[in-house]
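Case 437 in the screening queue. Each case pairs one protein sequence with one candidate compound; here the compound is D-xylulose. For every case the pipeline is the same: read the inputs, emit a complex structure as tokens, and attach any notable structural observations.

Predict complex for case 437.
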Amino acid sequence: MSAFPDVSTIKYEGPDSKNPLAFRCYNQDELVEGKPMKDHLRFSVAYWHTFRGTGSDPFGPGTMLRPWEGPTDTVENAMRRARVAFEFIEKLGAPFYCFHDRDVAPEGATLAETNKNLDAVVKVLKEEQRRTGIKLLWGTANLFSNPRYMHGAATSCNADAFAFAAAQVKKALEVTKELGGAGYVFWGGREGYQCLWNTDMKRELDHLAAFMHLAVDYAQRIGFTGQFYFEPKPKEPTKHQYDFDSAACINFLRAYGLAEHVKMNIETNHATLAGHSVEHELDYAGSQGFLGSVDANTGDLLLGWDTDQFPTDIYLTAKIMLVILKYGGLTTGGLNFDAKVRRESFEPIDLFYAHIGGMDAFAKGLKIAAAIRADGALAKMVADRYASWQSGVGAEIEAGRHGFESLEKYMLAKGEAAPNQSGRQELFENVVNRYVF
Ligand code: XUL
Ligand code: CO
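Case 437 output:
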């Protein structure tokens, strides 16, 4: 039984298409910089929003119409849902998906029962992966919904919460390996605090690092070779999340000896919550050698929380793709739509519109970014701005040939620094627009 009988495989129809169930820009095999679009973009569907999102908010219950959902969350229901998920992803033409353990299977009364439930659904996921060729981009464990994690998981004051989380991640790693997952994500969940009076911060940070080391060690023991990622988010649910932004996460990974094992998974709406832009977060991670994967979504300029909307702004996608191309493209990572349809968009067909819009916006962003790079005008303007470092004292400083004494001598002889030149921000912005319209 088809869950989407009125939808056939979504095809590329070109920029003039008015068909709402077609791509206008995403043409998966079209070459950009010599590589098919699908390999640049590596789109992934987020199981939790797309198949578990109910549309509930703090003011009311769910609104989503999902005819395949039974009245209770049984294993049978979860197995049926998994088949629906793959029908959706296959028709959409996304090559990957991502999940948390608890998205795909319901918790039982005990850990053993929960693991059994998960195994039953993982069997279906494996079958469906084999049938469709769709792959797992990354797996993760939900260490934040169950009340046992009210104080956090790895950073909980309750040692048993740490132990339960360890058992849960052990299983999640096994399952991710079983499904051939290309990665595994640590998102902090409740790893942070609300009030410093009742918090031993140093101890909690040490525990978080110890937990990640245990995960890395176990992955090595079972031969899971996927890439680990750390996903920054500055707040929500706690007031102070330990994984605030790229800079904080990278410092944490370096300080605790995890840098060689873990890269970053950067999410647009998390970047904006941190007071950054996503391109800042990506460039910071890339500049430090930590660019891994992207949770593709967007926030709302007028709302200060994690609205997780589908990205449709081509300036946003062009900026993201420009940074990704600059650092050599996505390898193990992808563009995972960690995004949800609005509470008012309650029909199944809205899931297609949402993903098609996001995929088209990223395809257009990729083309704009590639055009900027092919033309080279922008790169030349940036290079010109730093021309003083190409020769003379600039080149000597970069080559490590100066100390404070020699620089003082140089400046005493010269008397005053060379005059500054205009930053030309407005011109730069206009040049970018040459590739947009
Ligand atoms: C929460 C969030 C998570 C992670 C995975 O804001 O982004 O869904 O991506 O746990
Ligand atoms: Co995310």
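Case 437 observations:
- The mean pLDDT is 98.
- The CA atoms of residues 26 and 359 lie 6 Å apart.
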